[in-house]
Amino acid sequence: MTSHLNTESPCKLICTLDILLGVCTACGRTRGDIAQWTRYSDAQRALANNEASKRMKAFAEADSGTEKGN
After folding, report:
1. Residue 68: per-residue pLDDT
2. What are the sequence ranges of the domains in the chain?
3. Which of 5, 3, 2 lies closest to 46, judged by CA?
4. In Å, how far from its chain's centre is CA 7?
5. How far is CA 22 from the centre of its chain?
6. How many Cα atoms within 13 Å fall on the side-chain side of residue 18?
């Protein structure tokens, strides 16, 4: 059984970089991830995608808390 690594770019082609965090709020990648993407190995891309996904969930939770007045 082989595991599938998610190595596809999460880019949405609507880059919105949060300068303070150094993270794109559209895809969740860091500036470093974006700049180095074409040089990353499959394992590095999979790790970057995993971390980007976590960031996007955190952004969504923060937005939802803000909307509720928290």
Report:
1. 61
2. 14-38
3. 5
4. 12
5. 11
6. 13
Cα Rg for the chain, rounded, in angstroms? 14
Residues listed for the chain = 70
* Separation CA 8–CA 31 (nearest Å): 17
Give the span between the Cα atoms of 23 and 48, in whole angstroms.
12
Residue 65 pLDDT greater than 90, yes or no: no
Looking at residue 26, what is its pLDDT?
95
User: For residue range 13-59, what is the model confidence (pLDDT) as tens digits?
Assistant: 998 999 999 999 999 999 999 999 999 999 999 999 999 999 999 98
